[in-house]
Amino acid sequence: MTRARVMGVAAALCAAFGAGAWGQAVPPFTLQDLGGGAWAAIDNAAAKADESGSNAGFVIGADGVLVVDTFENPAAAKKMLEAIREKATLPVKYVVNTHYHLDHVAGNAVFAGAGAVVMAHENVRGWERTENLKFFGENPTAEQRAMVEGLYLPDVTYERGATAFLGPKRGVELRYMKGHTGGDTVVWDAESNVVFCGDLFWNKTLPNLIDASTKEWVETLDALVTEHPGAKFVPGHGDKAGDAGDVKAFRDYLAFLREAIAKAQTGGVNGDAVVKAVLPQIKAKYGDWAFPEFMEPDIRRTDEELRGVKRLPPLAMK
Ligand SMILES: [Zn+2]
């Protein structure tokens, strides 16, 4: 989540509680038809109210609907529920949170209120109401704290994965994979051959590495490309679904970052000196990707990771 996005959460909450008189010219997301009942809901960065803050999506099966992620505020989630209702009268049976970050879980209560069961890796339940506070800086306001502590938690958690059925023959696979937070789920719908990646895939967009383990993340992306060569991949951020080549390009960014930093660290160099050495290389190679504000933090966080001093969310107590 960017600083702008955090501000977006605050603005959206104001709007949700009637404090704002915001125009509604740009809707918070645009639907992308992926075929076979699978849809991506792509964040509109230009939206001025009810911001989505991230991508989400849904799968319409024979006897129900599965939603993947619920945006950064309830107003955007309500709009996605309305969009689903326009396409299907079937019940929304499940919500899957791909990870705990605020911009993917803040609309959970909207779908739970409509009867959905919210599912996620066990670390999402462990971190959602605590780790999300850090996105508001050192001193969150009382309102921000209340919002985070009031987030709707997953009803069902798992350690390795699960299968959610949308009819007798349509099992949608939920699979725990490592890299972005340590509690990420990839959702694969075989019938449409769509992989919802959450924030394990950023399409031509620089990623947030605040909780990342990039070594494991590269391995995860290698596995996804190998196992789903012909699939459509919905990114957590980025302006459209991608193919295996786009996932590989993102994998190569993480690998390039690791390699350039390891080289810069030779002789015990770290911190600012690593940023100075690596930033021009990233600018030259990835200057046209979205979210350039993550360039420097990505270098610092990976520098810390490679030196073994990076702070990661503590494993949740069961
Ligand atoms: Zn994330």
Note down, in words, how this protein is organized:
- The chain is α/β, with parallel strands linked by helices and 318 residues long.
- It has one domain: Metallo-beta-lactamase, Chain A, CATH 3.60.15.
- The protein is 36% helix and 19% strand.
- Helix 9 (272-286) packs across helix 10 (295-307).
- It is globular and about 60 Å long.
- The site of zinc ion (ZN) has 6 residues, from loops.
Bound ions, cofactors and other small molecules, one mention each: zinc ion
* Helix coverage percent: 25-40%
The count of helical stretches stands at 10
* Tally of structural domains: 1
Q: Give me the count of strands.
A: 12
Average of pLDDT: 93
Give a short synopsis of this structure:
By secondary structure, the protein is of the alpha/beta class. It contains 10 helices and 12 strands.
How do the helices and strands line up, and which of them pair or pack?
Layout: H1 3-16, E1 29-35, E2 38-43, E3 56-60, E4 65-68, H2 74-87, E5 92-96, H3 102-105, H4 108-113, E6 117-121, H5 122-127, H6 142-149, E7 156-158, E8 161-165, E9 171-177, E10 184-189, E11 194-196, H7 214-227, E12 232-234, H8 244-264, H9 272-286, H10 295-307
Which short descriptors sum up this protein?
318 residues, alpha/beta, Metallo-beta-lactamase, Chain A, seven-stranded mixed beta sheet, five-stranded mixed beta sheet, 10 helices, 12 strands, 36% helix, binds zinc ion
